[in-house]
Amino acid sequence: MSHHAPDATRMLDTRGYSGPTIHASNPLHLLEKPVRDRITASYYWKEQCFALNAATLCDKASALTGIGGTYSVSQKPTPFLCLLFKMLQLLPEREI
């Protein structure tokens, strides 16, 4: 049985990353590995952030009711953290 890696996991691979950088590194690495793993495993990421582009990301962000990091005993990421990760993945223009 083959295992399909989602796009977020593929972008986290450090071998041969050639996209835009922030502080000379992959922008997705600004978040720590345990947080990145929790984000890519969360239901909000899989259901709400899968097909977002720069315009729809702004719409989702304006609908947020709060900001935060993780919550509950299992340290689930908040929607804010998931959208931040998607923004780092897309790296939209400065105007957006």
Rg: 14 Å
Mean pLDDT: 81
Multimeric status of the protein: single chain
The biggest sheet, with number of strands, parallel, antiparallel or mixed sense and barrel status, is: 2 strands, antiparallel
The helix count comes to: 5
Query: What's the helical proportion of residues?
Result: 40-55%
Based on CA inertia axes, which overall geometry fits? Answer: globular
User: Alpha-carbon distance between the termini?
Assistant: 41 Å
Name the beta content range. Answer: under 5%
Poorly predicted spans: 1-5
Strand order of the largest sheet: 1-2
SSE string = HHHHEEH
Secondary structure class reads mainly alpha
Q: Count of DSSP E strands?
A: 2
Please explain how this structure is put together.
The model is unreliable at 1-5 (pLDDT under 50). The longest helix has 12 residues, at 79-90. α4 packs antiparallel against α5 (79-90). The protein has 5 helices and 2 strands; from the N terminus they run ααααββα. Helix content is 43%, strand content 4%. It has helices spanning 7-11, 33-41, 43-48, 54-62, 79-90; strands spanning 70-71, 76-77. It has 96 residues and is mainly alpha-helical. A two-stranded antiparallel ribbon has the order 1-2. The protein starts with 6 loop residues before the first helix and ends in a 6-residue tail after the last helix.
Topology at a glance:
Elements: H1 7-11, H2 33-41, H3 43-48, H4 54-62, E1 70-71, E2 76-77, H5 79-90
Antiparallel strand pairs: 1-2
Helix pairs in contact: 4-5
